[in-house]
Design brief:
The complex is a heterodimer of chains A (195) and B (181).
Chain A lengths: L1 H28 L2 E2 L5 E8 L2 E7 L2 E6 L9 E7 L3 E2 L3 H7 L12 E13 L2 E10 L2 E14 L2 E11 L19 E11 L5
Antiparallel strand pairs in A: 1-11, 2-3, 2-11, 3-6, 4-5, 5-7, 7-8, 8-9, 9-10, 10-11
Chain B lengths: L6 H26 L4 H30 L11 H31 L5 E2 L3 E2 L8 H36 L17
Antiparallel strand pairs in B: 1-2
Classes of the chains: A alpha+beta (195), B mainly alpha (181).
Bound molecules: protoporphyrin IX containing FE.
Protoporphyrin IX containing FE binds next to helix 1, helix 2, helix 3 and helix 4 of chain B.
């Protein structure tokens, strides 16, 4: 009995030490996105009419310390099937092979390759954006603000839909549906070290 | 012969008659199409024409308030003059109701109106999926109601032409002979 107890104590002690060692790393490794306070929106123009929506499902693995941007890593996944345009007709259209082909390839991914601090809470996230199996380099300028333990990241970039074959074929007329799609990102993150 | 409508009234009448007929036809046709660039173009032209009709309706109403139309022939029975007046009021109401419900539906469905792809118009209802579904039938019901009143209107014209022989229609026709009225 005594033996069992002492070995248990040992296990607990070892585990405790292991956790103490691991914890600071963990805190560094994972910043969390708060989905309810985050938003990925997009807008393009149809005959000069702004038409857009939001992606309701996305998740991100973020490793980010504003003071160590060399080590920053962002891996962002967006579920293209979750696009909410506000009317089901356009949403059904968007799922088709000519547009997102999202039944077959539901994920869009952004993986950062380099992060640059420009000062004043501004950063530039360079990386690869993959949609429909096509990867393109993009640079996303992001502004960070912090309050009450929550870091808000706001950024926006413009992609060209035809670079990703979004709206291929009969829809490639950019005078009807503009080539430029503005993506607006608002993220709330927890666990980001101070700016 | 009875006195004529003034030139502005005649211009409004025929301009709107052509545009409403075209918008109605395009509306019926476009909703029957499956999604395609053509369909998108027709939707946009339909909306632009519809907003133009709305502005014409506003201008026409202002004109109408200041310019009394020529009286109907005294030979017409009372119920017919009342029916004509009711129909005309209905037409004016629907000139507004049809485009406004279309505009509201479009805004609610997430397509704000940019007139001729050029002048952005405000949304007077928010983008809202449920509201859009609610508004959709109102636009086509209003459009069908407008078509029904227009049909009655034309039937009445034909009746005057064929049965009453009072040449009422010529009051609204452009003066082709070049005579002063
Ligand atoms: C006097 C002017 C107008 C007329 C006579 C008219 C008539 C019609 C008709 C007949 C339809 C087909 C309805 C159906 O059978 O489902 C339609 C659909 C439609 N109209 Fe109009 N309309 C007018 C103005 C407008 C305006 C100003 C707008 C928007 C700014 C508009 C937006 C639409 C839209 C979005 C639809 C498609 C509704 C759907 O998807 O079911 N219309 N219209």
């Amino acid at each position: 009995m005594k033996l069992v107890q002492s070995s248990l104590q040992q296990v607990v002690a070892v585990a405790g030490v292991a956790m103490l060692v691991a914890l600071p790393n963990l805190a560094n490794a994972q910043q969390r996105v708060v989905p309810a306070q985050s938003e990925i929106a997009f807008v393009s123009k149809q005959f000069g009419v702004p038409v857009g929506g939001k992606f309701k499902k996305f998740d991100a693995e973020v490793t980010f310390d504003p003071k160590k941007v060399e080590a920053a890593k962002v891996n962002f996944n967006v579920d293209l099937l979750s696009a909410d345009i506000g009317n089901s007709e356009t949403e059904a259209e968007l799922k088709k092979p000519g547009w997102f082909n999202s039944q077959k390839m539901p994920q869009a991914n952004f993986t950062s390759t380099a992060v640059k601090a420009i000062g004043g809470g501004k950063f530039e996230f360079s990386g690869k954006l993959s949609i429909k199996g096509i990867s393109q380099n993009v640079v996303v300028p992001v502004t960070l603000t912090q309050s009450a333990g929550v870091t808000r990241a706001v950024g926006s970039f413009t992609l060209k839909r035809l670079d990703f074959k979004i709206g291929d074929g009969e829809w490639n007329d950019v005078s009807l549906v503009a080539n430029e799609v503005v993506v607006n990102i608002k993220l709330a993150l927890t666990g980001v070290p101070p700016l | 012969m009875s006195p004529r409508y003034d030139r502005v009234a005649i211009l409004f009448h025929w301009l709107m008659a052509v545009m409403i007929t075209a918008s109605f036809a395009v509306g019926l046709y476009m909703v029957s199409l499956t999604m395609s660039p053509t369909r998108i173009k027709l939707y946009n032209w339909h909306k632009w024409a519809g907003v133009t009709i709305l502005t014409l309706a506003a201008a026409r109403l202002l004109w109408r308030l200041k310019h009394t139309p020529p009286p109907l022939p005294p030979t017409m029975p009372k119920w017919q003059t009342s029916a004509a007046n009711v129909a005309h009021v209905m037409l004016y109401i629907l000139f507004f109701a049809v485009p406004l419900t279309g505009w509201a539906y479009s805004s609610a469905a997430g397509f704000p109106i940019v007139w001729f792809g050029w002048i952005p118009l405000p949304d007077f209802v928010p983008k809202d999926r449920e509201l859009a579904e609610f508004l959709k039938p109102w636009h086509w019901m209003a459009a069908y109601a407008l078509a029904a009143v227009v049909a009655l209107h034309i039937l009445a014209v034909v009746k005057h032409l064929l049965m009453d022989d009072d040449n009422l229609m010529s009051r609204m026709l452009p003066n082709m002979t070049g005579d002063k009225k």
